[in-house]
Structure to design on (372 residues):
């Protein structure tokens, strides 16, 4: 089909998508930065919290890249970046958990051993292990010899565990994020993974290549 | 065949004993005046620093932590019991020594200690309390605030002899 829309219109649309995309990180970060609780937290604890926010945002970025929903980052470019963002996600988790460990080791030990009094810890720890497992599998993908469909379904299952675990983890926590921006980011992350699973027909014998 | 009959008799006897024990077992906890001891809560002992000093107030105050201490069984109030309290507040982390303090219960088994405002830490606005003074079994509590804006919190101890 020939695109008859003027260039300016496409440019405006692309700009709008990118502005919205930037806002999906900027708004939650700005809202969290305005929290009065920061006055009673030291830089390590604050860094741990913000690493968590960035990590949650990366869960939105990943399906967006795979789905090619960002103008200028469609197809191979987006999927290539998906790999690096995955590595970045592992880094944010390490900073998040490491910062909390420095702040209060016994609380982190409780979380890691699933003996925490806080229900959200279990969800976060499950998501953490799923993220590490995903990274490991991605690193060993070539060597594993998994056929593409098995890989796709396995990777998607892990991704669903990561998103659900992280979203529940985040929603149950009070203290780091502002509530409205947190709910909005969680809704976006869930919507994005549902859309990409549907669009790319993950379960199909042949995936959708773009 | 004889052995089969004996087996049945034994079986009936054993069953009778089991039922009798079971019933008496059910009856005992149902007695009046039997107050169960408070159990230590998960994570209650996190960042505990034994022997916090008895203080008139922790830091600048503004927040009230209160509660009761009673004896398991008859529920009698326990006077002069030392309760240790700590939390993440506007003045410090749970792991900071200045966030810790202790107080004693009055004649009615009631304790009340002023401390800085508790703020959410590790996802929940909560306090830590400990009874750890030998006469009774040690208990660690980790009560949650109904709202992080609340300016008071209660926690209650029912202690059993050590």
């Amino acid at each position: 089909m020939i695109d008859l829309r003027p260039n300016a219109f496409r440019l405006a649309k692309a700009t709008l998508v990118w502005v919205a995309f930037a806002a999906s990180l900027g708004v939650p970060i700005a809202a969290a930065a305005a929290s009065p609780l920061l006055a009673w937290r030291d830089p390590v604890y604050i860094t741990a919290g913000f690493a968590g926010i960035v990590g949650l945002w990366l869960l939105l970025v990943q399906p967006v890249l795979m789905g090619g929903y960002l103008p200028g980052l469609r197809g191979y470019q987006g999927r290539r970046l998906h790999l690096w963002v995955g590595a970045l996600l592992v880094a944010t988790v390490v900073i998040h958990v490491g910062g909390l460990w420095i702040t209060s080791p016994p609380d982190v030990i409780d979380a890691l051993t699933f003996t925490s009094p806080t229900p959200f810890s279990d969800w976060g720890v499950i998501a953490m292990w799923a993220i590490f497992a995903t990274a490991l599998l991605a690193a060993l993908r070539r060597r594993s010899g998994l056929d593409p469909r098995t890989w796709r379904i396995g990777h998607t299952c892990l991704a669903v565990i990561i998103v659900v675990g992280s979203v529940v983890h985040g929603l149950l926590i009070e203290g780091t994020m502002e509530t409205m921006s947190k709910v909005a980011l969680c809704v976006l992350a869930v919507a994005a993974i549902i859309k990409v699973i549907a669009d790319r027909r993950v379960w199909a014998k042949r995936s959708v290549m773009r | 065949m004889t052995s089969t009959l004996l087996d049945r008799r034994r079986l009936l006897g054993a069953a009778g004993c089991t039922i009798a024990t079971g019933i008496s077992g059910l009856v005992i906890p149902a007695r009046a005046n039997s107050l169960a001891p408070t159990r230590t809560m998960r994570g209650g002992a996190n960042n505990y620093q034994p022997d916090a000093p008895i203080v008139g107030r922790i830091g600048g105050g503004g927040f009230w932590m209160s509660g009761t201490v009673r004896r398991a069984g008859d529920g009698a109030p326990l006077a002069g019991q030392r309760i240790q309290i700590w939390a993440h507040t506007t003045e410090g982390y749970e792991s900071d020594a200045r966030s810790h303090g202790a107080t004693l219960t009055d004649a009615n088994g009631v304790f009340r200690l002023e401390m800085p405002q508790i703020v959410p830490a590790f996802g929940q606005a909560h306090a830590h309390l400990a009874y750890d003074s030998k006469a009774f079994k040690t208990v660690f509590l980790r009560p949650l605030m109904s709202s992080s804006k609340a300016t008071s919190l209660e926690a209650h101890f029912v202690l059993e002899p050590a």
User: Anything to note?
Assistant: Chain A touches chain B at residues 37, 39-40, 42, 100, 103-104, 106-107, 110, 115-118, 120-121, 172-175 (CB under 8 Å). The CA atoms of residues 111 and 121 of chain A lie 5 Å apart. Helices of chain A lie at 7-33, 43-67, 76-103, 105-112, 119-139, 141-144, 148-172, 179-199.
